[in-house]
Amino acid sequence: MSSNTDTPPTTANFVRAIIEQDLAEGKNDGKVITRFPPEPNGYLHIGHAKSACLNFGLAQDYNGRCHLRFDDTNPEKEEVEYIESIQEDIRWLGFDWGEHLYFASDYFEQLYDYAEHLIQDGLAYVDSLSAEEIREYRGTLTEPGIPSPYRDRTPEENLDLFRRMRAGEFADGSHVLRAKIDMSHPNINMRDPVLYRIRRVTHHRTGDTWCIYPMYDFTHGLSDAMEGITHSICTLEFEAHRPLYDWILEKLPVPCHPQQIEFARLNLSYTVMSKRKLRMLVEEGVVAGWDDPRMPTLAGMRRRGVTPAAIRDFCDRVGVAKSNSLVDLAMLEHSIRDDLNQNAPRRLAVLDPLKIVITNYPVEEVEYVEAANHPQDPSFGTRQLPFSRELYIERRDFMEDPPRKFHRLAPGREVRLRFGYFITCQDVVKDEAGRVVELHCTYDPETRGGSAPDGRKVKGTIHWVSAAHAVEAEVRVYDRLFQDELPSGEIWDSLNPESLQTLYNCKMEPSLAEASLDEHFQFERNGYFCLDPDSNSQHLILNRTVSLRDSWAKQAKKG
Ligand code: ATP
Ligand code: MG
Fold first, then answer.
1. Model confidence pLDDT, tens digit, residues 217-227
2. What's the rounded Cα separation, in Å, for the pair 25 and 13?
3. Whose CA is nearest to atom 16 of ligand 1?
4. Which of 97, 129, 251, 500 is 20 to 30 Å from the Cα of 304, by its Cα?
5. How close is the Cα of 104 to the center of ligand 1, in Å?
6. Is 109 part of the annotated catalytic residue set?
7. Is the Cα dihedral 79, 84, 85, 87 positive or negative?
């Protein structure tokens, strides 16, 4: 397994094998030009990241280039917000398209000319069947289709109708332009697929210039060809569209004929990746927005504290395969932890505070103890932590009546305070309801720095924060959004009711007051955290990116 560095070692895969063979054979003048073609109808998610890493990664590794092309042929679904977020997310992932930013809608005029070309060659016709009739005539997997009664219109008639379609003479849905291929082709995509439909919808870029819009299959291959793409990499569901991709490029005088290569899309357990479903979660208010830290979107993951390096590492580990599979969410979390473990400085923070008073420590005295910022990497340096008579510790680090294996604080027991002293619990203070509200402890002044001169050992080390110096924070602890491994059908039924737990009154070491949005921290023994963009100096908010260990794997083992 690869370790995480700035440039993860790239794993061999079948797409690389194809490209290397093409290069060896001198195909495409030795060029590698790929593209990433999002439809601007939602935010990018981790599945898109896989495609982007592949396309931009190949361009980087083979000295080529990767275009960012918005596939904006579906006017009613597209929004400017998405176009902006997609660019931001790709840049954040670490990729750059340079000047090669394109919109399929910029090609509408050329695409229209290509359509006329097909008509003139007798390879496309205007069909006047309704959408439903077209479906009925198409046949099934076992039965051939039936030719439309309009299939034999002459090129002149078709050209005239198509021009009038463009001119807006016909109602939406009254005619379409179809390729004239083969109504009994075993591949249904080849049974005279629709190339253009009439649709009076304002397009976010072309406005009301057009009332006919080209279909994806017609647009995509031609856009690839016009841009000089060499390898058009897409997901497996387009495998059955490849004959059409090739047919269109063969029949038209295009500058080049890119090779379509299909790979398996990323499927992640406990995650939905359909943009339609993600949009539903946003619109129904199940999550706070596209960038809710529980969303599998890049914006959500960024807000949660996931780094681009972790995502790139994950995509690399997942690899590129020819058949579909389900990747365990734990694998993504592994990449996130691996990266943060190396790169996140350590801090002390108490999420569920219990106050302790060190009764033999002088009142009002404050001393500073030195704390390492990273236990394995001295280059992170150290910081000074204030230590005083009143501290907070984690409530779970104390048990009044502990089982034998509990090595933390209990009446009469001695533990080490991280970077501090040994303390012993002497008294337990409770409120009227019997709840523990405070511990009275004593410390051994001889144990500064964490060891006793007499060589006695303690079994537990716990973290703490000086009460007088602590900064208060709200901490949002996220868990997977779905509790089903394969959320399907009504996704509402699969939601994890505990995907967000908000902790108020958390106590942070004082340095957190100066934290900035691009920083990541490990709170010792508590996980990895980052500041939320809604945080401010009056109200500190931190998001937990991920726990230190895979708690779900532990649960599964317990059974
Ligand atoms: P949806 O069907 O949810 O709208 P999409 O696949 O149509 O998603 P696009 O915007 O068309 O989304 O995707 C842009 C690119 O990302 C395409 O090349 C697509 O194949 C790829 N892609 C989308 N989802 C995944 C995934 N889960 N794994 C790998 N690549 C993906
Ligand atoms: Mg798509």
1. 999 999 999 99
2. 19
3. 48
4. 97
5. 16
6. no
7. positive
Query: Which residue from 484, 45, 478, 74 is spatially nearest to 277, judged by alpha carbons?
Result: 45
Whether the CB-CB separation of 280 and 272 falls below 8 Å is answered with: no
Do the Cβ atoms of 15 and 231 come closer than 8 Å? yes
Half-sphere exposure of 236 (CA within 13 A, CB side): 11
Name the CATH superfamily for 346-466.
Answer: Ribosomal Protein L25; Chain P (2.40.240.10)
Two tokens, residue 472: 């208060």
What's the CATH architecture for 269-343+470-559? Answer: Beta Barrel (2.40)
Distance CA(254)–CA(222), nearest Å, equals 8
pTM value > 0.90: yes
Query: For this structure, is 39 an active site residue?
Result: yes
Domain 109-216: CATH superfamily is Glutamyl-tRNA Synthetase; Domain 3 (3.90.800.10)
> For the segment 398-453, what is each residue's pLDDT rounded down to a tens digit?
999 999 999 999 999 999 999 999 999 999 999 999 999 999 999 999 999 899 99
Alpha carbons 21 and 137: distance in angstroms, whole number: 42
The residue from 27, 39, 88, 157 that is catalytic is 39
Pocket of ligand 1 (CB under 6 A): 37-39, 47-48, 50-51, 234-235, 265-266, 273-275
The DSSP secondary-structure symbol of 318 reads H
Are the C-beta atoms of residues 492 and 316 closer than 8 Å to each other?
no
Mutate to test the pocket of ligand 1, among 77, 265, 332 (most ligand atoms within 8 A of CB): 265
**For ligand 1, mutation pick of 15, 51, 76, 86 (most atoms within 8 Å of CB):** 51
Given its phi and psi angles, is residue 527 left (phi above 0), alpha (psi -120 to 50 degrees) or beta?
left
